[in-house]
Amino acid sequence: MRSQPLSQALRFAGALLLLAAFIAGCDALQEADAPSSDTAATAKTVDGELRMTMRGRVIVANRNAGTASVISTRTDNVILTVNLPQAEGEPLPEPMYVAYDDATDRVFIGDRANNRVVAYDARDASVIGTAPAGGIFHMWVSASGNQLWVVNDIDNEMTVIDPATLDVLATVPVTGGTPHDTIVEPDGSAAYVTLFVADGPDQVVKYDTGTFTEVDRADVGEDPHLGINDIDDQLYVPCQNSNAVFVLNRASLDMVTMIAVPGAHGAWMTRGGRTFFTTNLPGGGASGLFAIDTATNSTAGSIDTTPEGLIPVPHNIASTPGASKIYVTHSGDTASQVTIYTLDENEPMNPDLVTSEVIEVGLNPFGTFYVPSR
After folding, report:
1. What's the pTM?
2. 76 CB-near residues (< 8 Å, 6+ apart)
């Protein structure tokens, strides 16, 4: 056999090495994507593509399943199911709400059953660590990325966590009622907390995030939740049992206006603050999702949120950045579905132009959040 020139032989050997490295890399990827104690995640293959990242996805906390569903906003499929950490002897995790910190690129999920917040790396859904917080309900990360505020409705406290170190910065006592929802100013200067008050109107309380002291409080409607607009100074407070969205001035907490919305509960502000969405939780069915034009503080329309056979409890909301797609969790002990609405950009709340679909997630889908793609 004729001998090959040395250069050709070296090129052939190099190609074999590259092929071997490629195969090894594929094997390593499969191992990294497989369920493990490090990632605590189960990967799903969609259209032949195995995807682990949480970026550019909608995350749904499945309260009765101990998991979170990661939904692709491109295919509207569940591409990943994340299991919250559970040590031997611990109760099944109870995922409540989801928050995201852009500064650290971390996703936070509150585990009410185990009194902690779990931090995930948004790049690969791996568990970074946990932070203690008792009786977890709603939570929010400031856009400036230096504080995560977590409601403890059992001990009537707020736990403030550093998103980067997971250290507890403060435990803030709450007086006059039971804390429920929270949101933080985009610049991180103040936090707002809603209170359920037994012997009077429910309230919104404002806290200074530097001193962790109360600044002001205001009476609002019953069963209040919170949405914030980063383009002006208004705070949106949907109040389910008052059938209205209260709009407050954030500097003074004076009421700007009140917008009639039946059963107003869930709260989601689109990027840029042009539209505020809220759900009609007790009404379900027709007019289950309302949009409010923040320029005029008037309703821009509503759409049906209960396709046939769906549990009629439209609860929490997330949307893509331009709000071309809206994701609504339908909560309940036996519920397991999320509805997705594709809107027409020219007439976003025209019910004749809305298409909808239903997807299966985990048991009792509760809080939800859209994680930017960066």
Report:
1. 0.86
2. 325, 340, 357, 359
